[in-house]
């Protein structure tokens, strides 16, 4: 008998149900250990999905989770948005493509290239912004978001210069929406928010909680209705500029917290991750959004 049943005898009448759930968890935990190297490694999907560089092999690999897809193609301005780069299906619903460097050493998909996925599903062909893109930017010609290959050359990468502050014993948090934190009636940038940091420090705060960091559908959602969880909001600037903001906050001794709720996933299908593989139960479920 588990100790919990001794601590709370009222649970004994539900022992079979509790043990059923515990055994199910143990089974999945073993599956993760056997196939993914453990739950911790499985949780680090950013090291597996999206664009991954293999320097010794002079190539990139792109991987996406599309369990119910029939076919999938990586399309973008690098191939004139044609179906010339098919992904190959693998285990556990993963689709991948190797992208060898060109003969002159240039990447097959250059830095700042815009791209999407074209997916053939049971219900027809759809286009999606990859779930693991590092940046998504609006294409003003068609008024939708595209993924952006974001991998600056070493000379253009922001290098963190200041150590992360020690965790304070007592938090005094300054919360702000980066886009509307300025004085003017417009969208402000990551770098413009740096000007507010001295005042935050002077007022005695030791932590900064920033909202609307992940790419989201519209300003009206106040940063929720997230469309890409690994892409900093392009309305405020680039990923490198976000790094500079965080690094500057660290220089002032401010702990930086990012407001991110994974349950606040956008139900959008054109620019969000809902129905990524054409089904209603890929990243989201049929009764979406919550409460519907």
Automatic annotation (TrEMBL):
Transmembrane segments: none
InterPro entries, A to Z: GH (IPR017853), GH13_cat_dom (IPR006047), Glyco_hydro_13_N (IPR004193), Ig-like_fold (IPR013783), Ig_E-set (IPR014756)
Short name of one Pfam family: CBM_48
Recorded superkingdom: Eukaryota
Gene3D superfamilies hit by this protein: Glycosidases, Immunoglobulins
UniProt domain Glycoside hydrolase family 13 N-terminal: residue ranges: 49-127
Record protein name field: Chloroplastic/amyloplastic (AtSBE II-1) (Branching enzyme 3) (AtBE3) (Starch-branching enzyme 2-1)
The species this protein was found in: Durusdinium trenchii
Domain Glycosyl hydrolase family 13 catalytic per the UniProt entry, residue ranges: 197-268
